[in-house]
Amino acid sequence: MQNWHDNVLRLIAEIDRCIRAREGETLTLAHLARLLDCSQSQVSHTFATTRASVTGILCKSKLASPERI
Length: 69
Prior knowledge:
The chain is 72% helix and 0% strand.
């Protein structure tokens, strides 16, 4: 179970990194999956399982770097 949890956290960190690196671009689930070299289902399941959202990650990113607003 811990391994699964670690993998989910790693995937979320990668999603966050991809979103931050491509600020202003439209990111689709398919595009994120290609960037992360995993399936759309896996990315979608990660968001559903953790109740994370792209909007939430973007908001957290903006709050962490207010000079970028």
